[in-house]
Amino acid sequence: KQCKVAVVGAMGVVGSEMIKTLEQRKFPLSELVPLDTSENEGKSVKFNGKDVPVQVAKKGAFVGIDIAIFSAGAGASKVLAPMAVEEGAIVVDNSSEWRMNPEVPLVIPEVNKEALREHKGIIANPNCSTIQMLVALKPLHDLFKIKRVVVSTYQAISGGGGPAIAEMANQAKCWAEGSPVTHTVYPKQIMFNVLPQIDIFLEDGYTKEEMKMVHETHKIMDPEVLVCPTAVRVPVFRGHSESINIEMEKPCTVAQARDIFSKAAGITLVDDFTKLEYPTPLEMEGQDDVFVGRLREDKSVTNGLNLWVVADNVRKGAALNAVQIAETLISLELV
Ligand code: 2RA
């Protein structure tokens, strides 16, 4: 089936990556409709070598659209996603707006694609840090049942979009020139620094980003898995890394885990410390897979394992996962 696909937020970091991903994966498109705010009207995006004009995302823009992939922020999704559904489109939304709505499937195709069958028009794309963690953990959970996860993230600034990328680039420029280094996007200087805060703090001292990892794991994989997260912003442009410690019900050796990861969908194992082989965000940038390495037995608990998981947050953490959801809707004949 050929689909008419709209990308909402087409001029943003993730929207641009979505368009690139649709092109690279040869998505069965009858037409691409890039949508954005009125400020971007008149601009165009490149798709398959042609300039496609950007239209305004507003009432009426979704008539005739089969699938609308949104990455325009929660505020825009709240208003525009129901409008798009009313006009006949299926929405795949990358914002946080609909993720925990019980009527909305929250999907990582490698983990829970069957949830798509329950959709009522809107499907949510999980948060980047949850996506790469669960792609890695699902094959182990299926075989050994994970009881508890302790995760610390090392998240790239591109998770904050274009202004965050510009802020760190500008900080590097100012530092090199000897000018004062300022910040407005992040609460403190990010260049040469590490910030243990992503998104706002909640009353109990956890951040919203941390609690997304807890709630989304429960919705997507298993409500019984205990998750203890710490989310940290690091001065990396692209690619989130995660140090993950798990406790399982059944024993799993490092050799078994390596074998499972080497066969799992969407995962590349990079794990040979004798050759200094482990994944890093710089090396994995632009790639589709979730990369797993540094596998070690946790000798301090029964059935414990440590792993290091890296993925391109703009790609698998956002654009690619959304495009894969759209591809799966077609393969399951849900469009
Ligand atoms: C971040 N989780 O990395 C966000 C992006 N969705 O800031």
From the structure above, extract its key features.
alpha/beta, 2 domains, Dihydrodipicolinate Reductase, domain 2, Rossmann fold, six-stranded parallel beta sheet, binds 3-amino-D-alanine, six-stranded mixed beta sheet, single chain, globular
Please summarize what this structure is.
The chain is an alpha/beta fold and 335 residues long. Helix content is 32%, strand content 23%.
Structure description:
With 335 residues, the chain is an alpha/beta fold. The protein has two domains: 3-125 and 318-331, 3-Layer(aba) Sandwich (Rossmann fold), CATH 3.40.50; 130-313, Dihydrodipicolinate Reductase, domain 2. It has nine helices and 14 strands. The strands form three sheets. Strands 5-2-1-6-7-8 form a six-stranded parallel β-sheet, sandwiched between helices. Strands 10-9-11-14-13-12 form a six-stranded mixed β-sheet. Strands 3-4 form a two-stranded antiparallel sheet. Helix 2 links the parallel strand 6 (67-70) and strand 7. Helix 1 packs across helix 9 (315-331) and helix 4 crosses helix 9. The longest helix has 17 residues, at 128-144. The termini are close together. The model has no long low-confidence stretch (mean pLDDT 97). Bound molecules: 3-amino-D-alanine. Residues 127-129, 155, 159-160, 198, 209, 313 line the site of 3-amino-D-alanine. Its EC number is 1.2.1.11. It holds the Pfam family Semialdhyde_dh.
